[in-house]
């Protein structure tokens, strides 16, 4: 296998070019598209080579639970895109989040996390980790001091999403990274909403970035996948053995779909972000809406921070209707183009009512603390023409 482009330092290229080329390895056939290695295992020329490979003294693949050429191309591509040394792919975003956290802690340790999280992320922090003797503290992450005050001698990690799912809160990654560094602990950022193109947490000082590749990286609603992006040392010290022995591996087929997704990520995210920006502006003064949430609008609570930390506002817009659940449901049911779905990052525009879906298992009080009202909907803006999207939303708001 040969690595292409051959005489090019991939790190000298812009992210858009890395997303197309980084990590590509070609077989002896010189195929244009990345080869799909649908194989569980590998064969060896002789027993001594096999033994050497298991000892780590012969480079090469052993078993697709922990290494596969197609998966490894995806890992190299996302690492290059993120400017990181290393990455590991997993079966889902939640497998990446769970491994990223569990790999850093053991019984008796403590984790601090922002309280505003995707429902499953909050489950892992709040309920799953404590089952194994790992305490967790949830904080209102916009206040920097709460991170410092939540530290204990046994704290091992900070965790957050920014912008958050679904309320689009933006946290100061550089400032929280400084607190983590001072305390000698690791800092994990779930960068799903920002995408690798619009925010680079590792450059802001985070130690580990996680993705649900299911979202913008596939971007066409086909496969589940997750990614952990970090340094060689953190992979070796905390993740390599856990991934190898517990096996939350991505299928090579899904990894191949994600490689194809990364090739078009920049054009999709750029267009979806342009659509989202325009929709947020056009809807901001709509008389059926109480407020619009979009990180790059001046009326967003963390507008200045979003401008500093993100390269654009992203593909998601929060809409808070006037009224309650019945008004939100009437609005959703009156949409004709935008589909009701709990997914996001898709080429198709999708809309979600978080309080009855992704966050339905929380108490009304917990939802209120997370900023999720019954009249709040999360819009994932797709690739349709913005005039068609506006007409659909405006018409449905009229019916609501
Ligand atoms: C969807 C999502 C996840 C989980 O990803 P899956 O691929 O669905 O497992 C984690 N974090 C955030 C912010 C998400 O939006």
Proportion in helices:
25-40%
Share in β-strands: 15-25%
CATH superfamily of the largest domain: Type I PLP-dependent aspartate aminotransferase-like (Major domain)
Name the hetero compounds present: pyridoxal-5'-phosphate
CATH class label of the largest domain = Alpha Beta
CATH topology of the largest domain: Aspartate Aminotransferase, domain 2
Keywords: Amino-acid biosynthesis, Methionine biosynthesis, Pyridoxal phosphate, Transferase
Pathway: Amino-acid biosynthesis; L-methionine biosynthesis via de novo pathway; L-homocysteine from O-succinyl-L-homoserine: step 1/1
GO molecular function: carbon-sulfur lyase activity; pyridoxal phosphate binding; transferase activity, transferring alkyl or aryl (other than methyl) groups
Pfam families: Cys_Met_Meta_PP
What does this structure look like?
- The mean pLDDT is 96.
- It is globular, with a radius of gyration of 22 Å.
- The chain has a 7-stranded mixed beta sheet, with helices on both faces.
- It starts with a strand and ends with a helix.
- It has 2 domains: 13-261, Aspartate Aminotransferase, domain 2, CATH 3.40.640; 265-399, Aspartate Aminotransferase, domain 1 (Alpha-Beta Complex).
- Helices cover 40% and strands 16% of the residues.
- It has 14 helices and 14 strands.
- The chain has helices spanning 15-21, 47-55, 69-82, 93-102, 119-131, 144-150, 173-183, 195-198, 232-246, 252-283, 303-309, 325-334, 364-369, 386-399; strands spanning 2-3, 25-26, 86-90, 110-114, 135-139, 155-161, 186-190, 208-212, 226-230, 289-293, 316-321, 339-340, 350-352, 376-380.
- It has 400 residues and is of the alpha/beta class.
- Bound molecules: pyridoxal-5'-phosphate.
- Residues 92-94, 97, 118, 120-121, 161, 165, 190, 192, 212, 214-215, 224, 226 line the site of pyridoxal-5'-phosphate.
- Pyridoxal-5'-phosphate (PLP) binds next to helix 4 and helix 5.
């Amino acid at each position: 296998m040969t690595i292409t482009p051959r005489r090019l330092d991939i790190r000298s290229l812009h992210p858009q070019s890395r997303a197309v080329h980084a990590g590509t390895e070609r077989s002896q056939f010189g195929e244009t598209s990345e080869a799909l290695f649908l194989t569980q295992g590998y064969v060896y020329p002789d027993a001594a080579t096999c033994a050497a490979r298991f000892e780590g003294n012969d480079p090469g693949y052993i078993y697709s639970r922990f290494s596969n050429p197609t998966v490894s191309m995806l890992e190299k591509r996302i690492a290059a895109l993120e400017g990181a040394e290393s990455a590991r792919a997993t079966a889902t975003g939640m497998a990446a989040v769970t491994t990223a956290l569990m790999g850093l802690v053991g019984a008796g340790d403590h984790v601090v996390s922002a309280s505003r999280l995707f429902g499953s992320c909050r489950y892992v922090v709040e309920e799953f980790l404590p089952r194994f003797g790992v305490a967790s503290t949830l904080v209102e992450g916009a206040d920097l001091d709460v991170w410092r005050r939540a530290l204990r001698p046994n704290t091992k990690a900070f965790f957050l999403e920014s912008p958050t799912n679904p309320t689009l809160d933006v946290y100061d990654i550089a400032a929280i990274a400084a607190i983590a560094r001072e305390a000698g602990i690791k800092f994990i950022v779930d960068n799903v909403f920002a995408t690798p193109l619009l925010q680079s947490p590792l450059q802001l000082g985070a130690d580990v970035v996680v993705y649900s590749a299911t979202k913008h990286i596939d971007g066409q609603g086909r496969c589940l996948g997750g990614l952990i992006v970090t340094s060689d040392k953190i992979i070796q010290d905390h993740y390599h053995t856990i991934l190898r022995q517990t096996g939350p591996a991505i299928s090579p087929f899904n990894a191949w779909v994600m490689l194809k997704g990364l090739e078009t990520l920049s054009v999709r995210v750029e267009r979806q972000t342009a659509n989202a920006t325009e929709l947020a502006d056009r809807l901001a003064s709509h008389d059926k809406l109480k407020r619009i949430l979009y990180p790059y609008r001046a009326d967003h609570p963390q507008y200045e921070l979003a401008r500093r930390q993100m390269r654009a506002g992203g593909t998601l817009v929060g809409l808070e209707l006037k009224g309650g659940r019945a008004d939100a449901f009437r609005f959703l049911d009156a949409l004709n183009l935008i589909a009701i779905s709990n997914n996001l990052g898709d080429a198709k525009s999708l809309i979600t009512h978080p309080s009855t879906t992704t966050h339905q298992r929380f108490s009304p009080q917990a939802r209120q603390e997370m900023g999720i009202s019954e009249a709040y909907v999360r819009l994932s803006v797709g690739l349709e023409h913005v005039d068609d999207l506006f007409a659909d939303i405006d018409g449905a708001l009229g019916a609501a």
